[in-house]
Specification:
Blueprint (H helix, E strand, L loop, with lengths): L1 H10 L18 H11 L8 H26 L1 H12 L12
Length: 99
């Protein structure tokens, strides 16, 4: 349960809500920020102060997300993986041969 909650918290700002139908825009999503960054960086003119600010803001968000993902895999994932491996779960049942 803790692992599931951690994954939900990590992906909250990474991907759109899949239960929403139709057009959906969420400015809090990193993908929205990356799209916005891409659109402002496609100009022929030199990069403006506003564009540099957007770049810095998006970089901070992406770095925070990466740190969170790495922390998850360094801590909770290792604990979860060890528990599953120690349980030696198998999708197969043992059956006695028919006689």
């Amino acid at each position: 349960r803790i692992t599931t909650d951690s994954l939900k918290a990590l992906t909250k700002n990474l991907e759109a809500d899949r239960t929403v139908k139709g057009l959906y825009r969420n400015p809090d999503l990193i993908t929205s920020d990356l799209y916005r960054l891409r659109s402002v960086m496609n100009y022929w003119e030199p990069v403006s102060a506003t564009q540099m600010l957007i770049l810095k803001q998006v970089s901070v968000k992406v770095e925070k997300a990466i740190r969170g993902i790495n922390a998850f895999f360094d801590n909770e994932w290792k604990t979860y993986r060890k528990a599953v491996e120690d349980a030696r779960l198998s999708p197969f049942k043992y059956y006695e041969p028919l006689r």
